[in-house]
Amino acid sequence: MTKIECILRPGKLENVKEAINQFGIHGMTVTQVIGCGLQKGRTEVYRGTEYSINLLPKIKMEMVVPDKDVEAIVKLVIENARTGEVGDGKIFTYKIDNAVRIRTGETGEIAI
Amino acid sequence: MKNRLLRTILMATAFIMTVPALAWAEESAEAVVETAATVDTGDTAWVLASAALVMLMTLPGLALFYGGLARKKNVLSTIMYSFFAMVLISLQWSLWGYSLAFGPDVNHIIGNLDWVGLKSVGLVPNPDYSATIPHQAFMIFQMMFAVITPALISGAFAERMRFPAFMAFLLLWATFVYDPVAHWVWGVDGWLRNLGALDFAGGTVVHILSGVSGLVACLVLGKRKGFGNEPMIPHNLPFTVLGAALLWFGWFGFNAGSALGANGLAASAFVVTHLATAAAAFSWVVAEWIHHGKPTTLGAASGAVAGLVAITPASGFVEPLPAIIIGLVAGAVCYIAVGVVKAKLRYDDALDAFGVHGIGGTWGAIATGLFATTTVNELGADGLFYGNAGLLGKQFIAIGASWAMAIAGTFVILKVISIFIKLSATDEEQDTGLDFTQHGEDAYTDFVLSASPFGSASIPAVKTSSEVKPAL
């Protein structure tokens, strides 16, 4: 099993979610996050005073998937989240030891 | 047996309770007969409605306007400043404030204590102030002005003044700064009124006093922790816009109500108030659009308030086109005060009480000296542009006196309070936020994941030295 963690532009969430659902993955956890990377912040002005906002809002999407699907899902995410501009986000993958379904106590791939 | 006894006692009690009511009914019937000859129903209806409109300016208008500008952790404490201005000043005004401001004159500087507790302030009109409405209607209308003025100051020291210190400041400031200056300008035989300085609805008394006092207060209290390093940006601009819109709405009571009658002067004040506000919102947005490249919602709301402030002293004396000029200048000047000058001088007027009310009020008082004309109000005077330079001089005297009183009064009052209690929240308290440290509450509770409703018997609360301190 592999955990795929994607940092996305907030506006791309729906596209990515839809594509992954169609692929057959229905479980995911989505969080609103803020962060910084290559993309520089932006400037907001309140009553003439400028504030540079360095941490920008992003979406973090996490899902645990069978190893055989990882490559295809990563490709799907890239296709659906990419604009080509700085700030498109990142994808991280991690090996997962185990998964447990709390309701039944099932473990392993069947639980995800 | 027991039941009958109980019933008898109940009936007797009920009968006794009606006696004072009957007596009161007779009394008020007499009062109505006495006043029927002079009270004008239309005037009275308009002034009472105006009093309610001005009440709406403080709560919820100003509370939302300032609350939205504050950070999340300080929104309740910011709202509470306005709320308690309403609570405490209403009591102060009826107990002694009204008497000091409008009571029989002592040496042209203050009213005496003849009207303490609203003694002799009855349902009969007082022709010195308003010949056609009950004296109590005039009193309650003026009360709402006394309430909003210290509430306006709270914008300057928001996010850092401790609540007990704020309460002390409210009462002392209203008594020793607002009430005397209100007497100078509006009281019978007040020296600025005798001088002939014009202030229709409170440009000097309300806005110069609150704005300049705000500047003094923010300098005495010092900057908020993290000022200049941490982002201190408004947490809810829709609140602020809603508050500004309610201020605009309520201001029709403030200015048009100051005609103290349902008449042509009220209509004129209503129209010029609206025009100046629209013009100021326009010029503020244009100024920042040129300066920073974006027309902001906060700019529109702030500009509208600046326009309302500036037209206030002039609203009973100027024609529509000058009102537009007053508004256009107010929006641009206040924008420069807040967006450019404040940034250069780096004083921490948290929500711009000085930049909007101090500067806007001063411009309004000057503009009254320029644009006033007796064609609008024969009880007024002609200004510089209508051939009378003398008025402008009197306006400058009124401005100078108000500035001086605001600076000296606020400084002394804060220094005296600081002998007894701390004015500012500590750095740790400011980090946690005043909502929790002063009031024990949190405005947005969606992140409180678990809480025990029956005290912390089962779950020992985590105590940190700085967070769980009572306000006093």
Automatic annotation (TrEMBL), chain A:
Q: Which domain of life is it from?
A: Bacteria
GO terms, biological process: regulation of nitrogen utilization
Q: Which SUPFAM superfamilies match?
A: GlnB-like
Report a single Gene Ontology molecular function. ATP binding
What GO cellular component entries does it have?
cytosol
Give UniProt keywords alphabetically.
Phosphoprotein
Question: O-UMP-tyrosine occurs at which residues?
Answer: Y51
Q: Does the keyword Lyase apply?
A: no
Protein name in the entry: Nitrogen regulatory protein P-II
Native organism is: Pelotomaculum propionicicum
GN (gene name): glnB_2
From TrEMBL, chain B:
User: Where mainly located?
Assistant: membrane
Q: InterPro entries per the record?
A: Ammonium/urea_transptr, Ammonium_transpt, Ammonium_transpt_CS, NH4_transpt_AmtB-like_dom
Q: What is this protein called?
A: Ammonium transporter
Task: Supply the alphabetized keyword list.
Answer: Ammonia transport, Cell membrane, Membrane, Signal, Transmembrane, Transmembrane helix, Transport
Q: Where is this gene product found?
A: Cell membrane
Q: Name one GO cellular component term.
A: plasma membrane
Membrane topology reported for the UniProt record:
Multi-pass membrane protein
State the organism named in the record.
Answer: Pelotomaculum propionicicum
Record-linked NCBIfam families: amt
Instruction: Say which family it is in.
Output: Belongs to the ammonia transporter channel (TC 1.A.11.2) family.
State the source organism's domain of life: Bacteria
Q: What is the lineage of its organism?
A: Bacteria, Bacillati, Bacillota, Clostridia, Eubacteriales
- GO MF terms, alphabetically ordered: ammonium channel activity
- Residues that span the membrane, as ranges: 44-66, 78-96, 137-158, 165-186, 198-221, 233-254, 266-286, 298-317, 323-341, 353-376, 396-414
Which SUPFAM superfamilies would you find in this protein's record?
Ammonium transporter
Residues in the signal sequence: 1-25
Q: Which residues form the Ammonium transporter AmtB-like domain?
A: 45-444
